[in-house]
Amino acid sequence: MMAPSQAPGSAADPDGLEDRLRRFATIWSRAVFPVTATSLTRPEIEQHLLPLARRLSDSLHSRTFDARAVQGIGAALIEAHCTDPEALSRTLGVIDAYLVLYCGDPGIEGPGAEQAAEDSRARCARLQHALAAGYAHGLRERTLAEQESIARSSLAARNAAVSALHATETRLRAVFEGAAIGIAIADLEGNILEVNETLTRMFGGLEHHVRGKKVTEWSHPEDRPHVWQLYRELVRGEREHFRVEKPFFRNDGTVLWTNLTVSLLRDPDGRPQYQLALLEDTTERRLLHLRLRYEATHDALTGLPNRTLFFERLEKALSAGDGSRFGLCYLDLDGFKAVNDSLGHATGDRLLVEVADRLQSCATAPGEMVARLGGDEFVALTTGPDTEHEVDELAARILSALASPIRVDGREFTVRGSIGIVEGPAGERTTAEVLRSADITMYRAKSAGGNRYETADPEADARAITRHGLTTALPAALERGEFFIEYQPLVDMCDGKVHGAEALVRWCHPQHGVLGPDQFIPLAEHTGLIIPLGRWVLQEAVRQARYWQEHHADLGPVRINVNLSPTQLQHPGLVNETVAVLEGSGLAPGSLCLEVTESALIGADEGLLKPLRQLAELGVDIALDDFGTGYSNLANLRRLPVSVLKLDRSFTKGMQHLPVDPVDLKIVEGIVSLAHSLELAVTVEGVETGAQADQLRELGCDTAQGWYYARPGPPEKLHALSLADAV
Questions:
Q1: 3-state secondary structure of 318
Q2: Other residues' Cβ atoms within 10 Å of the Cβ of residue 669
Q3: Burial (CB count <10 Å: 0-12, 13-18, 19+), residue 582
Q4: E strands within 534-665?
Q5: Pairing mode, if any, of strands 377-384 and 368-374?
């Protein structure tokens, strides 16, 4: 009787697990009772199976899978006399159909329910595999015990008195005929003399198909090479027994897989006389193993080999010798995430199945395979002596196969893909190195526009790895104070005096040395670290400008220019943080100029321009940096809250030496005239020669910066430059 604390729905058993376990045990007992050789009643069998059901439930929910615990359940079935092979088959059927249903977790709902159900089904399959292994092990132990009993009985029969001979033979015959495994006796020439009923059933049920045959007629193409060598050693008396896994052909052409144990029987004088074969039918277990192996090595959605099987093949290809080569295509579908986001994962899955079918048709030659790594990532592998050409052809076939539109649920999709190719001789790189190179190369193809393939380049790989290392090191570098600022003077072109300075951030990397902003600012943009880094640069630059004004009055009203990235422009706290920095340092807003690249403002809406307008209204100057490189409409200058144009160096490069390029001269003259008509000051970057400076001064440019005046340097260099100008 169920204890009150275990009643279904009680506080101790809120989910009614105990009740569901009893229902599962009832179904199990009804399935195996008809094929169980026991004097127990079915309710008694049910009570025996209930703790086993509880152990199955515990294994289904345990964090780590303990195969030995589940194997013990299989052995327990043997102990309960469930030795008929049908008992195992029915047990596996009950577990497959009802274990997750009755013992799964009914409380999981929402987005994780489908994954939880899939995990439970996978765990259930592993339970079946382990239970079958434990059942087979228990049956084998029982068989070996029976074999030992036969041997003892044979020895007793030889030594027994004549009066007990008949009884002994009767007992041996009973064991022989009633054994749960197949038994056969043959002479030393291999002629089969006796077989039991179990072995006859294993080979199709007709005794004449077994008795009278020769052992050598039962060869099979999948026999291990040493099997028949072991057999020859046994009949010569050189060994007493051997055990192997061996397949046999039945008369209907099907294959019987067995664990075969062959022992040598000697006469009273010790001479070889007969051979005794014990055959355990492992066909069902092998099929189960093959099914589990297939599920473990193939993608459930597309049926392609999965990551596990692909890695096995790749490792085998990379470890091959004799001048073997390999070629790997790493494919990622371009823009596939938009399909899942807009049409749902069901449509995306059906599209992946169609893509997988097309990819499979591209890799049909010997040594080629296609696998799905996960998501919308696929790989194609080719091996052989000429993969240098074959891998390019394989990549071209893949892109060609994807070129035709795919129809799914009445919709037509155009699928594009980016492919990274890695090719080379076997034995030089590890699996991880090959996959990393292929992944880097694939993203290089995607960055180049997609729908194309690129071949791996060791230098490009090294740059990508370095970028990754810098990306991961950025947060800690800011905390450790590895960044510093250099200042490049801004010179007034009318009197040649220092007008201000542009703050340029540098990274003093402990391994790579001093890095310029072009090497880490894009990485900071990508990771979002540009916000705290930009805030730190603004604070340091404003603090330095205020220091110059307080301690170096000879510099005059120094202005400080600070660059703003596109990500900083969209940061909601830009205005408040800038105002807080100015107020905290005491620097007047008019002494700060924020530089924004022209490309960042192309097509900018009012929402993006609003914080710049607010800063401009406070008195902060806004400079349009790299003007002329963004192909913006000049008419848009009127709506932008800018007060300074910074002319890109590409327009003035032709003025570095005489004679000056007349086209560049006209362009710069027009831009300066336009800017002044809009009441905008013009700053020129990249001034490197005196001739260039003279021409720009004649054209009316207001300020300039470049190596002609000074390279970027520490803050004290600006003061020294100002003193030199004064002298």
A1: helix
A2: 14
A3: buried
A4: 559-564, 592-597, 621-627, 644-647
A5: antiparallel
Structural tokens at position 18: 């105990």
Q: Which of 623, 567, 571, 552 is nearest to 592 (CA)?
A: 623
Predicted local confidence at residue 157, as pLDDT: 57
Tell how far CA 362 is from the center of its chain: 23
pTM of the model as a whole: 0.52
Distance separating alpha carbons of residues 344 and 608, to the nearest angstrom: 32
For residue 260, the SS3 value is strand
State the angle between helix axes of 345-362 and 336-343 in degrees (0 to 180), rounded to the nearest 10.
150
Residue/partner pairs of 137-142 with CB below 8 Å, 24 or more apart: 137/71, 137/74, 137/75, 138/74, 138/75, 138/76, 138/77, 138/78, 138/79, 139/78, 139/83, 139/180, 139/181, 139/280, 140/259, 140/280, 141/75, 141/78, 142/78, 142/83, 142/180
Question: Per-residue b/e over 259-288, b at no fewer than 16 CB within 10 Å?
Answer: bbbbbbeeeeeeebeebbbbbbbbbebeeb
Give the Cα separation of 421 and 325 in Å (integer). 13
Distance in angstroms (rounded) separating the CA atoms of residues 74 and 161:
42
Q: What pLDDT, in 10s, does the model give residues 450-494? A: 899 999 888 877 777 777 778 888 888 888 999 999 999 999 988
Three-state DSSP state, 687:
coil
pLDDT in tens, 109-139: 666 667 777 878 888 888 888 888 888 888 8
Pairing label, strands 325-333, 377-384:
antiparallel
Instruction: Centre a 10 Å sphere on the Cβ of residue 520 and count the other Cβ atoms it contains.
Output: 25
Q: How far is CA 304 from CA 300, 308, 369, 395, in A?
A: 8, 11, 9, 18
Closest to 283 measured CA to CA, from 249, 317, 306: 249
Model pLDDT, residue 682: 93
Do 548 and 539 contact (CB within 8 A), yes or no?
A: no
Residue 241 corresponds to which amino acid?
H
CA distance 523 to 528: 8
* Mean pLDDT (10-residue bins), the chain, 727 residues: 41 67 88 82 87 86 82 82 82 85 70 73 84 84 80 66 56 71 87 85 75 79 85 89 88 86 89 90 87 88 92 90 86 90 90 93 89 93 88 93 89 91 89 91 90 87 75 85 92 87 92 87 85 93 90 75 91 93 93 89 79 92 81 67 88 79 85 89 91 89 91 81 48
